[in-house]
Amino acid sequence: MPESFFRENLDPEPLWPLHVQEHAPTGLASICIAATVGVAFGLLCGAGHLLKYNILHIATFWPADGFLVAYLLTQPRNRWWMPVLAAGLGDTIFILARGGSLRMSGALMLCNLAEVLVAALLLSKALDRQQDRQKEQHQDRYVDLASPSLMIRFLAFAIVLAPTVSALLGAEWYHFTLGIAFWPTVAKWFFPHAVGMAVMTPCTLAIWNPNLRKMVGRERLMPTVGMFLLVLVVSLAVFETRYSLRFLWLPLLMLVVFEAGILGALLATFEILIVATFFTLHGHGPFWMEKGATMQGSIFLLQSTILVLLVSIVPFAAILERQRDLRKRLLYGMQRYRLLADNSRDIVVLSTLEGHRLYVSPAVQDVTGWTPEEWTNQNSVELMHPDDVGPFQRILQEMSHGEDRRIFRYRTRHKNGRYCWMEASIRSLPDSISGMPNSFVANIREISQRVDAEQKLEAAYQQMQEQAQKDSLTGLANRRRFDDGLDMEWRRARRTGRPLAMMMVDIDHFKRINDTFGHRAGDHCLQAVATTLRQMARRPSDVIARYGGEEFAVLLPDVDLATARTMAEGLCSNVRGMLIDAGIGHMLSLTISVGVAAQVPDKNMRADLLVETADVALYAAKQAGRNRVMPEYDGGEASVTFPYRVQ
Hints:
The protein is of the alpha+beta class. The chain folds into 4 domains: about 20-180, no CATH class; about 210-335, no CATH class; about 345-450, PAS domain (Beta-Lactamase, 2-Layer Sandwich); about 470-645, 2-Layer Sandwich (Alpha-Beta Plaits). The chain contains 19 helices and 17 strands. A 5-stranded antiparallel β-sheet has the order 6-5-9-8-7, with helices on both faces. A 5-stranded mixed β-sheet has the order 11-12-10-15-16, with helices on both faces. Strands 13-14-17 form a 3-stranded antiparallel β-sheet, with helices on one face. Helix 6 (about 180-205) crosses helix 9. It is elongated.
């Protein structure tokens, strides 16, 4: 089976892929290529002057800059410097050969190169952005020069902005050095350069387009030659007749689009431009038919006509080619996906949103025992478990209101009478006319074994969840369970307006115990304090947790600060009176420090404020000498500090 079968063939391929030369020639080869570009640029500058009405210094179009922009777009930016320098040298030599001064040649060369670099840099950055988007979508394809976004940028950057920049620079130089009027010079410069960019850049890029080779291949050579001969004959007829037949160009170019696509339209427009330029410069053709026509006005009409033809026919050609390509891919895709559906182990169903099945793949018989014909003749809910009918109908209703896709688990009756679990991946399909969803495609697979495994896993997870919320050493709640309890009790207290108290408990000098008697003795101390805490807070709503290290936190709903302080002092007294068997042959006694806080929550308070207040109170108890209770906002009374004792 061909590899292309597995590609997403409904994704449009580039109509006009840009081939950027990744491997640079080295040494003499790169110098020769740059020299060739420079010579070509100089010759095209000469061609631009040949296509010029020299009496009024009015050029029809300037091909050199568009050629250089096209060449630069096929090269990485780090290799632009050599062809740009060669082009500048070629331009300078040509102007000097025509008798221009070194000052004039340098100024005009800089204006031309400014136009080239503005257009090339802005377009190359737009190409980079499109390439980056394709990489994000995991599409390893060439950049499409015929994409709408790039065509708009080409119009804005290459046809409008870049010629404007060079026209302003050139007019400024002529105005200050030769005293020539500024704005007329801008107009004389802008339009031929805009036409040159519009025609020469795409025509030059067409050289690297593989579709051009198809046009002149053995099978297409004669039709292509005949087509361009037809363009030539019609163009000659337009300029040789006494009538204005310019309207013939539009249907002619549309015919070329149908036969040769976007590349044929560009080359045909270039052919029309050459014929029109020759006749217009010699005072013939439809641009001279208006009363009082002048050379400047006729050339302006020629330039405007070519620009309008290009701006109109190129997007039309791109849209037409995309539609033609999409039809081919759609037909292939339908054949391919029908073959995949018929051979898939999943059940593929096409159904209306009312539940009437239109197509059922053969896999249904292996999974449910029913034949495709039996399933097709039934409504989607007939074999469904009654408890699942309501949710399924709600899904169909949501899809009728625009929901795109859903995953639905349900039970369906096997032909042997038992129910089996199924999972359907449902996606809506729009109506071809209204665009509103009117049907859906579902990929259905049996998941009975998976559901059974998930149920067992859920039971095991619940058991692990209970264990995950306990501290393994003390058996108290852990920090995560305490945070959940604090959030729940805080919201309940804010609702009821009742107080919520908290104790933050810390074993005094616990590090010294670990360092002196070892971690085993420290563990026994932690367990003993945990037991005392459980004896103090007996209500089901009380939350006792090991907060971290030797710290414990106690959450007391519906308890005010005074009551919490009394309870904390009793806790301190009980711990102080304990003798702990630490498993080291000695009995240890401990003391604790307790910070107490209580608040009645309101909507502007955060739950962690209670923790911060209790923690500050605990810190104050330690600073005051440990072995004491310190309520919030109270310095507390001094009490005797009893460090641990060995007995």
